[in-house]
Model the fold of this input.
Amino acid sequence: MSTPLTLAASRRPDGTAVLAVTGEIDMSNAPALEAGVARSAGDGVLVVDLSGVDYLDSAGLSVLFAHAERIRVVANPLIAPVLIVSGLTEVTAVEGMGPGSDLDEDEL
Done:
């Protein structure tokens, strides 16, 4: 059974917009992620906190790539390989991947 997607928008004390995402991101709910990112981004940088995400497919990656120039991503070790292999780590800042975030493609 999949974990439902939840989105929670907030701001850090410095005013930076944050979109905390939990659950699974797939083609069934990628449009909700897209809407959440678009709504939360505003004019500045948006931190997309994926630390509570336990599954991310290509539909979710497409949303992140579409906004790569204006987002920073907080990830977790579970989805780190997907972010690395997809190349998202090359086009936007990704933090919090923990041990294994220095993996190269031969190790994945």
